[in-house]
């Protein structure tokens, strides 16, 4: 059997990559990924052969990975964060039926919801929902419904892909939906460039978040009714102190 790993490399910093992920990359002959992600690991695995494709060529990238494995190479397809959270594990596994001689193994990584939450404090200590505002693959009306349901249920929310040049007002729209179900003073946070150069955080309210400019390098956290600011960051209590 040929071997193909689908590896979540974490938020960006080598220190945030799991030991298992690092070992897989070290044992691979070929590392394949989106150009930005490949640039994050090249310095740590300099002797590997690298293949890249730009954004919106995900399926081509997957076929490339399988074809390289069929040549007898041990291959790693890398993704930022976790490979199974808006990553390449899904399409790789779907296509694996076309390549029965290639064994696929998914290697978990630290997704932005977790690494960003750690920078801000502990906003996800209780139940939470992760929602992407990108409508490239998901219709906007479906995204709206998910935001509404998470808001009604008072889930803390982690928002991926909050804005882009073509979606400059999507976070504003999301805040308007959420504001129908919870206070505009709800505690929120933003983490930018997690684990990479330019990393920074901001704590603010839902009211302030609505008018804040963000981009694809930001991960947004929206608290529930109990989320609060403490001296060292944001906390969503689970209730330990009441027991």
- Alpha carbon gyration radius: 19 Å
Looking at the structure, the CATH topology of the largest domain is Methyltransferase, Cobalt-precorrin-4 Transmethylase, Domain 2
CATH architecture name of the largest domain = 2-Layer Sandwich
- Order of strands, widest sheet: 3-2-4-1-5
CATH superfamily of the largest domain: Tetrapyrrole methylase, C-terminal domain
Low-pLDDT stretches: none
Number of helices: 8
Major sheet, described briefly? 5 strands, parallel
Determine the strand fraction and express it as a percent band: 25-35%
Q: What is the helix fraction of residues, given as a range?
A: 25-40%
- How many strands appear in the DSSP assignment? 13
* Total domain units: 2
The top level CATH class name of the largest domain: Alpha Beta
Mean pLDDT equals 96
N-to-C order of helices and strands: EHEHEHEHEHEEHEHEEHEEE
- In terms of quaternary structure, the protein is single chain
